[in-house]
Amino acid sequence: MSAPSSSSSLEVSDFPFLSSPERESKPADLRQWVDEEVWLQASFYLSPLVSHYISEKTWCATAYASHFQAVACHPIDRVCHPSFHGERDFIYVYEPVFRLLGVTLPFQHFEAEVLWALGLAPSQLHPSGWAVIQAFRLVCRFYGVIPTAALLLFFYYSDVPTPASWVRLVPRTGRDLFSEYQISSSAFRPWFFKVYACERRSFAATARSFPLHWQLVPNVSKVPVLSPEDQTWVPFLEALPRGMDCKALVEMALRPDATAHFKDYLRDQNFNFRPVLTQAKVLMRARADALLRNEALPRVDP
Fold first, then answer.
1. Residues in CB range of 139: below 8 A, 6 or more apart
2. What's the pLDDT tens digit per position in 14-55?
3. pTM of the model
4. Cα 175 to Cα 154: distance, rounded to the nearest angstrom
5. Which of 72, 74, 111, 156 is in Cβ range 3.0-4.6 Å of 107 for a Cys bridge?
């Protein structure tokens, strides 16, 4: 039985980027606020490579293929560049984030909500942060829980370097669900291309509107106030082993039988998941029944 839909508990006041009236204010000269490692880096992803990658048809959901146009960058383009005046909507994307981590367009609601909450353009989030998102989605799927940005940010916060560079998701003390996903800067930094939205299409399958281009943002270290739905599932997520192999979980998430492989992984970690998973399923059924009867939703701590 699928989980009942949960509403996000994100409040604008929880996130400095969203609540600050100055959030759009940044120097026009990128060199005043962006790290030179970013603004000096041109794309090595030339037209033949982009064309070949597009032909693989893995970067975009088939039903949305006509919604987006992927093109190689001009030699002067930088991943932190804003759009030119009158230019149609576009984003820069890193090919390894799509190819290695299974991210596709349009971005799913959970992905878009995380970007929205942190005030980040897709290319501004470090690939290791994208890996955390994919691994977190897998563990939520294991329990049948709908992942939310608030639930993720209960376990992680954003670490924004100064001057601005790629933003990482860092585990809060004692809440390190995953090990750090290791990827060298040379493995992703020059491998970006441009994606245009056709006919004002959205880059996400959601109403959330995240920045398309790099922003000057603060750290998001405050723990968000969780909705009752999210609070219900925190103990189940906390019951999982600490420091799970993020790379292994991301690779599992790409497979159609991902949850079965995750169970095998937990067995290899000598973690007896059956009691907590059984309790989660019982709770899920009880909550679904309560919704049908318009009763208060039950909660159980594992």
1. 177, 237, 240, 244, 249, 262
2. 555 454 444 445 667 888 899 999 999 999 999 999 999 999
3. 0.89
4. 8
5. 111
